[in-house]
Amino acid sequence: MNLYRIMIVDDEEEIRLGIIKKIDWEANGFIVVGDAENGQDALEKAEKLQPDVIMTDIKMPFMDGLELGKKLVELMPSTKIIVFSGCDDFEYAHKAIKINVVEYVLKPINSAELIEVLVRLKEQLDREYNEKRNLETLYKHYIKSLPVIREQFLVGAIEGRINEEQWHEQMEELGIDFKYKHLTAGIIQADGTLSFEENLNSFSAQKESALTPISIKKIVDENMGKYCKFISFIYSGMVIVMGNFEKKEDILLFIKGINEVCKVYKRIMGLTISAGIGYVYSNPSQIRFSYRTAQNALDYRFILGAGKAIYIDDVEPDNSIHLQLDEREERSMLNAIKISSENEISEG
């Protein structure tokens, strides 16, 4: 059984000891962790003992029960307060309500009445404890799941399933600090990657194929931060790196960072990796176009050579025509195609 910690505060030692001996605390779900002779003494001890409940007299020297209650609300707001006092202290009782006192007990304290108070209080503490435990469990599960949730969101972005509004709503919640306007996508892949059929025929090849993107991502995460804001994730056996920068020309820093990753990987692993980097966009919903053009750039490694970063604008300058529609235009075009309206297609 979970025992809640309680402290007894009264300026008369005889009363404190009498209350402590009056009932079986553990049988009622509590354990007395300490006592104090005034509010100041109680405050100092409470900070060390961290009681769940403080049971205090109102009238005491140095610091009375009401002043103690005010201090506790500030310093230990979750601590419950039980006030006990004489029957002529009604005005004090009224003031006690304002400092979150959960119970008010009249002197002389009756054992049966005190047990009733403790039963009610334990029920309240149990509810709060269970709620807190459930919230903590959910939060731990969320934190544990966050990398997966983040990856699913980013995959949705490069696949064109995330619009601009969703992007801005989710990025902060997912802990991705992309505050600048310009975005790009890069793809990094090991050179000489085995075909699907070759992987099927070799367990060691399957294992190596699975571990390679992990090792690449680790080097990306260790080296890219000094060049720009970025995030990386694994997708279809490749490492995707999204970059975020204030000025469009800062793409040069992104390229420099990816090139360093390629060099570091070769130095550490003795193997080459290549990267394709897509065009820079300012609309988050267009990150899918950057991803697609990064794929195109990566294919140029067979012509330009492997082991380095290839920027699409260096091989396919952006003065050529690219059909890149925004979400509204794309939906309009698709709807027009579905109803086979040549006029709508030509006007879209």
Task: Provide a descriptive summary of the structure in words.
The protein has 14 helices and ten strands. The chain has 348 residues and is of the alpha/beta class. It folds into two domains: 4-126, Response regulator (Rossmann fold); 159-317, Alpha-Beta Plaits. Strands 2-1-3-4-5 form a five-stranded parallel beta sheet, sandwiched between helices. Strands 7-8-6-9-10 form a five-stranded mixed beta sheet, with helices on both faces. It is rod-shaped. Residues 111-138 form a coiled coil.
Q: Please describe the biggest sheet, giving its number of strands, its sense, and whether it closes into a barrel.
A: 5 strands, parallel
Structural class: alpha/beta
What's the CATH class label of the largest domain?
Alpha Beta
What is the 3D shape? Answer: rod-shaped
What proportion of the residues is helical, as a percent range? 40-55%
Mean pLDDT: 84
Superfamily (CATH H level) name of the largest domain: Reverse transcriptase/Diguanylate cyclase domain
Number of domains: 2
Q: Major sheet: order of its strands?
A: 2-1-3-4-5
- C-alpha Rg, in Å? 33 Å
Order of helices and strands: EHEHEHEHEHHEHHEEHEHHEHHH
Number of helices: 14
| Unreliable runs | 319-324
CATH hierarchy: architecture of the largest domain: 2-Layer Sandwich
Which fold name fills CATH's third level, the topology of the largest domain? Alpha-Beta Plaits
Query: How many angstroms does the end-to-end distance come to?
Result: 70 Å
Number of strands: 10
Strand content: 15-25%
Organism: Clostridium beijerinckii
Modified residues (4-aspartylphosphate): 57
Protein name: Stage 0 sporulation protein A homolog
Coiled coil: 111-138
